[in-house]
Amino acid sequence: MMRRANVIALLVAVLGMAALATPAAAQQQLSLNLGYFALRGEDNRVAGDTVVENLFSDFPFALGYRVSDFNSVNFGAEWLLPIGDFIEAGVGVSFYQKTVPSFYADLVDDVTGEDILQDIRLRTVPVTATIRFVPTGRNATIQPYIGAGIGIIPWSYSEAGDFVDPAFDTFTWEYKDSGTAIGPVVFGGVRVPVSRGFALGGEIRWQQADSELDRNVGFQGTRLDLGGFTYSANFIVKF
């Protein structure tokens, strides 16, 4: 709790410093973002990640899906405040959710012969505080930028459906946990003004974070890796 409080205080501090450093006449920006979030691949995920552990459970209890099945659309918004001509501070929020159908790779229902099915759902709502550098300045025709910051990522993860216990009895259940992860964010992009009040852009953003799962719930793994890349198109309003 103390660590989370410190990060929230940092978010507030970034906003406060940016507001104090922003001249009254300077243009602030609201970036509306539509993108695609891709989780870190199977070979690069944190040790004990439950998304991977499900795939390699002791025979015959492994589940059938791919880590890439969790890749999906996300959307969000970011408020950007100028600090001089080349630096901007930002505070943003985004939303991602994906439900992945799963089945036992080596087991079927004894009566029907059909697959034993589950739904695995992941939801995140990242909140970020960032600083970016615009080397061409904020008034250039083309404005590339790079930046970094910190993210607070509330998450919810569940596995719901039919499961098989060690005695090979089938039961219906929902395993569910939620929490908040904290980690770094690094990004780069470019934007192009199309008028005095609007700009269009594109961005690639990387985040790294993972969180411990409640061991009493009964997941196969002990951690949940939330790291990955976001590729987004940005519609920017200046005011």
Walk me through what this model shows:
The protein has 239 residues and is mainly beta. The chain has one domain: Porin. It has two helices and twelve strands. The protein has helices spanning 2-21, 50-53; strands at residues 29-39, 63-64, 72-83, 87-108, 115-124, 127-133, 143-164, 170-193, 198-207, 210-212, 223-225, 228-238. Strands 1, 2, 3, 4, 5, 6, 7, 8, 9 and 12 form a ten-stranded antiparallel β-sheet that branches. A two-stranded antiparallel ribbon has the order 10-11. Strand 7 and strand 8 (170-193) form a beta hairpin. The longest helix has 20 residues, at 2-21. It is elongated and about 70 Å long. It starts with a helix and ends with a strand. Mean pLDDT is 92; it is low at 1-5.
Write the layout of secondary structure elements.
Blueprint: H1 2-21, E1 29-39, H2 50-53, E2 63-64, E3 72-83, E4 87-108, E5 115-124, E6 127-133, E7 143-164, E8 170-193, E9 198-207, E10 210-212, E11 223-225, E12 228-238
Antiparallel strand pairs: 1-3, 1-12, 2-4, 3-4, 4-5, 4-6, 5-7, 6-7, 7-8, 8-9, 9-12, 10-11
Summary tags:
single chain, about 240 residues, mainly beta, Porin, ten-stranded antiparallel beta sheet, two-stranded antiparallel ribbon, 2 helices, 12 strands, about 10% helix, about 55% strand
